């Protein structure tokens, strides 16, 4: 890569901080299997006191948990023959109601992964926890299975939904007999040798050395920000922080390792989490859902949510995802390039916005690629 363009990345990130769109950030760029750029900007926190950002800061990954934990776990189970994409959800969650229109159509695992199930965007976490008590995962999945709406015929439309991934979590746990946080830790994070990627369940003590690395998120009613507690309401109020839609904490460098493994067919440094064919399946938009959806399995490719991958990366074979709290991952499989932005967007007061920042950084970094070797 031509390194001179990283001066432009500095300028874009510093402007995002000056404009109040984030208190701080870490940017990592991967080219093939090499980390070519890693830099911290701004502050890790500003409330209750100011702490500068460091490259080792752990961020609440929010919805990026969907792709780096839940999706990778599901793809492992698919390649091991324990789950199929076209299995019906009610085979794993008895009583899971279908869509009922002019005819009845059952929801599949693929529908959940591509956000084409018709399930609602989210549940009212305060309503669920108020009815069943805080941290009620069994009641949450029963509520999703029997009471939430089915908004359209599965496979025919798109509605981005955390509920899809709460449901995938229940399937993974029913099949493996393990909590998602424990399965992902053993089979993905530890398997890749990641040192600072993990769930921080509310019912487990957080080691002080880990808590010291975590960037806080939004200030709460007591005047203090959440720190080491997941920001997402469903994960925090209903799922003990162990949730299919959110709950992972990670660093830019660890996410760079995940990206490098996927660009290398599921393996990095002799550590394999998926086979090359499984990676290809996961990163391809299925041909049996509505083509305008533009979602691969657990990842975005070309939906309206994908604009943060910029204008220059591969149009057909770049996967991406964002998290509400500020992180984003862009992986151009075709051109062996990954761009990770870990930002503390909602600290201290959930007022920032990074859509344009992400896209402009992606454009600058993609334009720096001198050659485009294929895998």
Secondary structure blueprint with pairings:
Elements: H1 6-18, E1 24-31, E2 34-45, E3 51-52, E4 59-60, H2 64-79, E5 99-100, E6 104-105, H3 109-113, H4 125-132, H5 137-146, H6 162-176, H7 180-189, E7 198-199, H8 208-211, H9 233-238, E8 248-250, H10 252-263, E9 267-268, E10 271-272, H11 276-282, E11 318-322, E12 328-332, E13 337-343, H12 355-367
Antiparallel strand pairs: 1-2, 1-13, 2-3, 4-8, 5-6, 7-8, 9-10, 11-12, 12-13
Helix pairs in contact: 1-12, 2-6, 2-7
Describe this structure in words.
The protein has 375 residues and is an alpha+beta fold. The chain has a domain at 3-54 and 180-217 and 249-367: DD-peptidase/beta-lactamase superfamily (Beta-lactamase, 3-Layer(aba) Sandwich). 32% of the residues lie in helices and 14% in strands. The protein contains twelve helices and 13 strands. It has helices at 6-18, 64-79, 109-113, 125-132, 137-146, 162-176, 180-189, 208-211, 233-238, 252-263, 276-282, 355-367, and strands at 24-31, 34-45, 51-52, 59-60, 99-100, 104-105, 198-199, 248-250, 267-268, 271-272, 318-322, 328-332, 337-343. A six-stranded antiparallel beta sheet has the order 3-2-1-13-12-11, with helices on both faces. The protein has a three-stranded antiparallel beta sheet with strand order 4-8-7. The mean pLDDT is 96.
